Recover the amino acids of this structure.
């Protein structure tokens, strides 16, 4: 039996395996530590952190959809101060590798968040969320516009963060674009160490009986297995043009799903909404990847990155 | 500590039109479960439905537990087809239980429709742990929708019925009937049902100076406090604490904490 090496380096971040979790689907880690040892993850990615605590959107915020869910939580989070004081010690105590996901209203806010995190050893890498669909007024014209949809703004935000931090810097982008290569290349040229693909797809639902939108925010983000084919394709598109690595995500439920992303070109993968259904999904993905490598005689998981046969 | 286990269905019966009682064998969950807590049922293997369904414990036995549900949507329609002997993956126990407060002299349960679900377990716990036999109001739209009435009577509870159309018991709202029971400061009211009904119950209790505890229902993805989808607005100034999670901060809340304005 061969020894399998699942270790990877993701834009300067060393991970013991390529599996992390999607921001917002794992809180700050502790909740799911009741189901499995979260230190076994390649990394824990936190819920988006903002400078000030946020209460998030009005309710209803969440609705189930075919093979997925639509959410408009609106970045409810404890804020950077409480994270550093109350949430971080637990993750550090457990010796987890930490990716802190951050959200700001301007480049300056992202910079301040990144500086705080680096200065207070709040994470081992930073993932900048430039693609949250749930923080704007959807009723206004272009109310759903995202930073990630404008390559110039992606470059501006990434450059500001790059100048502010020496931590590995990942940029989380949106699938709601015509050409994913543009924001990806903008992030790469501005100094990003990796890109995270994909955030949720914009969506909405209407109750015909009441004629009212199902979500209070009207528009939300679609996640879950329903979006997986879209995500795999966008990772493949991005991999064709990028030098920097990709964290692939979107509807991963098991190792076979994760392998689709890796074969399409992702160096790491994140388990998202499926953790809600089955809290230990990420652990079974890690075990499944190891088993796959053994069955296929793959000594290093990194050999599989972009190894789709065409 | 919540468990994730396969539970065998040992009983599944229709107790009223579209209302069912499902008894599941799951010793790990049953031994830790308390009245007011809930579990998350995996409806079936595969990705449809994608999310589990939250269900509170109706009865808790040494090695098994019961849930009572009404067929409401796609998930419960599928659950209703489950057969005795089949296994269901269940996550639980989750959430905070009803506090059992010995210092109160008068315990009143107010159940609206399928909101009766957590109360047989609570009545049992109050009798066993506090030596207090609660008075129970079971309310529903019509007489055929009244469930668990006999269970409360068998425990020795005084049961009052209320229906919207007067087809059984008091004609009108449970909250109006509650007002007639003469609440005092040593009364504690436990309620569960539609938000408007719990709001009315809260106001009756507030006027009488009685403590009111509500078990809230919400759509939820995780049941573990992670997704933040099931929140309700609380009367809290602090921004970060204003949206409380039904799953882990509740589902049982002191009604003074909840912002009832929009209901």
């Amino acid at each position: 039996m061969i020894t399998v090496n699942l270790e990877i380096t993701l834009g300067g971040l060393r991970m013991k395996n390529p599996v992390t979790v999607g921001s917002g689907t794992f809180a700050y880690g502790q909740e799911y530590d009741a189901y499995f040892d979260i230190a076994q993850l390649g990394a824990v990615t936190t819920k988006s952190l903002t400078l000030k605590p946020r209460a998030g959107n009005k309710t209803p915020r969440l609705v189930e959809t075919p093979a997925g869910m639509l959410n408009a939580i609106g970045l409810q989070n404890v804020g950077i101060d409480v994270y550093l004081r109350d949430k971080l010690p637990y993750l550090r105590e457990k010796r987890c590798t930490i990716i802190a996901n951050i959200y700001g209203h301007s480049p300056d806010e992202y910079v301040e968040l990144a500086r705080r995190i680096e200065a207070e050893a709040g994470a081992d890498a930073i993932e900048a969320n430039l693609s949250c669909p749930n923080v704007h007024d959807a009723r206004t014209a272009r109310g759903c516009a995202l930073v990630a949809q404008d390559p110039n703004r992606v470059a501006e935000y990434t450059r500001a963060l790059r100048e502010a931090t020496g931590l590995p810097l990942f940029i989380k982008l949106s699938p709601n674009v015509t050409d994913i290569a543009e924001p990806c290349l903008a992030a790469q040229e501005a100094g990003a160490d990796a890109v995270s693909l994909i955030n949720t797809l914009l969506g909405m639902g209407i109750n015909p009986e009441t004629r009212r939108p199902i979500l209070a925010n009207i528009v939300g983000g679609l996640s879950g297995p329903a979006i997986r084919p879209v995500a795999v394709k966008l990772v493949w598109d991005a991999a064709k043009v990028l030098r920097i690595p990709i964290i692939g995500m979107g509807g991963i439920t098991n190792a076979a799903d994760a392998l689709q992303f890796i074969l399409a070109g992702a160096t790491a993968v994140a388990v998202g909404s499926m953790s809600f259904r089955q809290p230990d999904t990420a652990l079974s993905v890690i075990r499944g990847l190891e088993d796959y490598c053994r069955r296929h005689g793959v000594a290093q998981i990194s050999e599989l990155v972009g190894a789709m046969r065409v | 500590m919540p468990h994730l286990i396969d539970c065998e269905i040992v009983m599944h019966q229709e107790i009223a039109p579209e209302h069912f009682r499902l008894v599941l064998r799951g010793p790990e969950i049953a031994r830790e479960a308390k009245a007011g807590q809930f579990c998350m049922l995996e409806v079936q293997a595969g990705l449809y439905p994608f999310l589990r369904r939250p269900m509170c414990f109706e009865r808790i036995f040494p090695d098994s537990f019961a849930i009572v549900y009404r067929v409401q949507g796609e998930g419960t329609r599928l659950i209703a087809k489950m057969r005795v002997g089949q296994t269901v993956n269940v996550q639980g126990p989750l959430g905070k239980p009803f506090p059992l407060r010995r210092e109160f002299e008068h315990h009143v349960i107010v159940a609206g429709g399928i909101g009766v679900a957590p109360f047989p377990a609570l009545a049992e716990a109050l009798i066993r742990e506090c030596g207090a036999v609660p008075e129970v109001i079971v309310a529903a739209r019509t007489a055929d929708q009244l469930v668990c009435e006999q269970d409360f009577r068998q425990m020795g509870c005084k049961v009052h019925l209320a229906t919207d159309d007067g087809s059984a018991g008091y004609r009108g709202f449970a909250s109006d009937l509650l007002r007639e029971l003469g609440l005092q400061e040593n009364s504690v009211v436990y309620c569960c049902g539609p938000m408007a009904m719990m709001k009315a119950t809260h106001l009756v209790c507030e006027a009488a100076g009685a403590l009111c505890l509500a078990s809230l229902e919400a759509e939820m993805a995780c049941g573990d406090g992670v997704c933040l989808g099931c929140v309700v607005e609380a009367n809290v100034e602090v921004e970060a604490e204003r949206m409380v999670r039904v799953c882990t901060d509740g589902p049982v809340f002191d009604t003074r904490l909840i912002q009832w304005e929009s209901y």
